[in-house]
UniProtKB/TrEMBL annotation:
GO terms for molecular function: methyltransferase activity. Keywords: Cytoplasm, Methyltransferase, S-adenosyl-L-methionine, Transferase. This is Protein-L-isoaspartate O-methyltransferase. PROSITE patterns: PCMT. Its EC number is 2.1.1.77. CDD domains: AdoMet_MTases. SUPFAM superfamilies: S-adenosyl-L-methionine-dependent methyltransferases (SSF53335). One of its GO terms (biological process) is methylation. It comes from the Bacteria. Belongs to the methyltransferase superfamily. L-isoaspartyl/D-aspartyl protein methyltransferase family. InterPro entries: Methyltran_FxLD, PCMT, SAM-dependent_MTases_sf. It is found in: Cytoplasm. It is an enzyme of class 2 (transferase).
């Protein structure tokens, strides 16, 4: 059932859906591995508009996330995810007919796609921590004819032991760690796909069990609302200029929140690294390399007002790669325009506070290491080991310690 029956001729859900899937498929074949035929068929079937009741059809069939819940400060806590990202993660997950799938983070749309992919012999259970979300997902799934999907209200940190094991577990909220329940409830040969936050950057990882640890089979750039409940991430926001400029970092030793809050008033250090970037956007490989190399890696945020008034020169609305240590910080500057010809996007660093010149030099130095050794490589492999695994039993690489796990990022 696809909910198209009563709709007038012009922009029918079916037509808009075809156009959306054509667009998602075309962009995917330009950027990487093409959309798999099975995921494409599911996208062409599931009626996304029925999971966004009351929204214009054009919004339901735009390749955009649609925020459905916000907290008291207006920060999004739930959304119906962006179709292109949903598609990429389903291709990472590879659900097969007959599989038992657990989805953590509901909305209904992705559960409907999963239901198409596992077929009548499989099963889909979707869980969410927010009762409004589970109620909305339940009624939309029923309205769209996916009444076999089970919807459960609970904190995904603990999975669903009563229904385990699962062939596939897909997490559609930004996790900060991999709690033991997820690999513990995975069937032999199973796969977990989860967005994992690593020092402020998030990658969707496809993980499989390999002995006592998990190993990544693929990773994708992604953005999600943050996980709530027991697994909440220990994020610290330090205002540098009221609400206009700030640093978003993970709590930890070596950060002095009080002197950092005053650092922006100190004279600015500017440093050219000599590393040329692509014409637009932060390079996924470089920002991840910097996040691995520096425990104090963080993101600088700034409003258009702050940029317009020259307080800072950040380039990326979602947060500019930065490094904080003691009472100083340094960050990646905006691309410069030479006045004619193409945008010259050099990795330039700015810094403020005591020792900012040293921080800026180290940030620029690691950008040069990435440029020389890893820029054209295949990208990193992620392994996830139980917390308490001694250093000498970990593979070589950068170690990022979490509550339950030690994540090792290995760059070939
Ligand atoms: C991006 S939305 C999920 C989108 C959805 N999968 C879809 O079909 O579009 C993320 C959801 O994760 C939920 N969430 C946050 N923390 C959670 C937790 N600890 N356990 C389960 N759900 C959680 C939020 O309430 C929110 O509804």
């Amino acid at each position: 059932m696809n909910g198209d029956e009563d709709t007038p001729r012009a922009n029918t859900p079916a037509r808009l859906r075809e156009a959306l899937v054509d667009e998602v498929a075309a962009r995917r074949s330009l950027l990487g591995p093409p959309l798999s035929p099975r995921v494409e068929a599911a996208l062409r079937t599931a009626p996304r508009h029925l999971f966004l009741p009351g929204r214009p059809l054009e919004q339901a069939y735009a390749d955009m996330p649609v925020v459905t819940r916000t907290d008291a400060e207006g920060v999004p806590t739930s959304s119906v995810s962006q179709p292109a990202m949903v598609a990429a993660m389903l291709d990472q997950l590879r659900p097969e007919p007959g599989h038992r799938v657990l989805e953590i983070g509901s909305g209904g749309y992705n559960a409907a796609l999963l239901s198409e992919l596992v077929g009548p012999a499989g099963s889909v259970t979707t869980m969410d921590i927010d009762p409004d979300v589970t109620a909305r997902a339940r009624s939309a799934l029923d309205a769209a004819g996916y009444d076999r999907v089970e919807v459960v209200l609970a904190d995904g940190e603990f999975g669903l032991p009563d229904r385990a094991p699962f062939d596939r577990i897909i997490v559609t909220v930004e996790a900060w760690d991999i709690p033991p329940a997820w690999p513990g409830q995975l069937a032999r040969g199973g796969r977990i796909v989860t967005p994992l936050r690593l020092r402020g950057l998030t990658r969707s990882l496809a993980l499989e069990q390999d002995g006592d640890h998990l190993v990544s089979r693929s990773d994708e750039m992604c953005a999600f609302v943050a996980i709530q409940g027991v697994g909440e991430s220990p994020v610290l926001r330090i205002p540098l200029y009221g609400a206009e400029v700030g640093l978003v970092l993970e709590k930890g030793p070596g950060i002095d929140p009080v002197s950092l809050a005053g650092a922006l008033a100190a004279p600015r250090v500017d440093l050219h690294s000599g590393v040329e970037l692509g014409p637009v956007g932060p390079l996924s490989g470089l920002d991840l390399w910097l996040a691995c190399a520096f425990p104090g890696f963080c993101l600088l945020t700034a409003t258009p007002w702050a940029v317009g008034h020259g307080l800072v020169a950040p380039a990326w609305a979602a947060g500019t790669p930065a490094l904080a240590e003691g009472g100083a910080f340094a960050y990646q500057g905006a691309p410069e325009h030479a006045g004619h010809g193409p945008l010259r996007a050099e990795f330039v660093v700015h810094g403020h506070g005591p020792g900012a010149d040293d921080l800026a030099a180290r940030l620029a130095g690691q950008a040069r290491v990435w440029d020389r050794d890893h820029r054209s490589g295949p990208g990193p492999v992620f392994t996830v080991h139980p917390a308490g695994t001694p250093d000498d039993r970990l593979p070589g690489g950068f170690v990022i310690d979490k509550r339950h796990t030690r994540v090792v990022v290995t760059w070939p």
